[in-house]
Amino acid sequence: GGDGTRAIPLYECNVTLSPEETIRDNIETIMNTMANAELTWSSEGKYKLQVEYPTTLAEQNALVDAQHYFTDDDIVRDKIDINWPSASDRYNQVSVTFLNEHEDFKSDSITWQSTGSTAHTTFLTEDNNQPFSGTVSVAGITDPYHAKATAEQLVREARSARSISLTVTKKGLSIEPGDFINITSVNANIDD
Fold first, then answer.
1. Are 128 and 20 in contact (CB under 8 A)?
2. CB count, 10 Å around CB of 91?
């Protein structure tokens, strides 16, 4: 309580793992508590854990390999398909249910953004006053701080995520799942 701030770890997991489950399933259970964590398969035939969480443009740009910058010169067919989330996949409010360690692990929930808050009203206005809300339960999250962060991440990701489909020259052969790339296309109005 109060007006102070509290330092919390970026990732925290409080979950029971089962030796009856496969190692991969247990790893995925742990990773479900980490926003944007991905387990991918590398070109060497090994699993690769991606937990990059850039917080500035400079950090994000540092994750892009120098060979993974693509321009109109690298795009083979001048056709780029950009797909935005549909209305049913877009949230303006999410509630996360969790077992609250501060309340002896009783079931609890937290919502981001609070109904009537400035951000929630802004999102509703952007969505023509249509309430797009969802409820998720994430095993391993046991405090309101991480639950709220997860709810915020789900709302923001659902509002900004898009998929881009394009064909590039052989320059793209070195890309692996989970790699960060940069696309600049005058033809598709994509900048950096």
1. no
2. 22
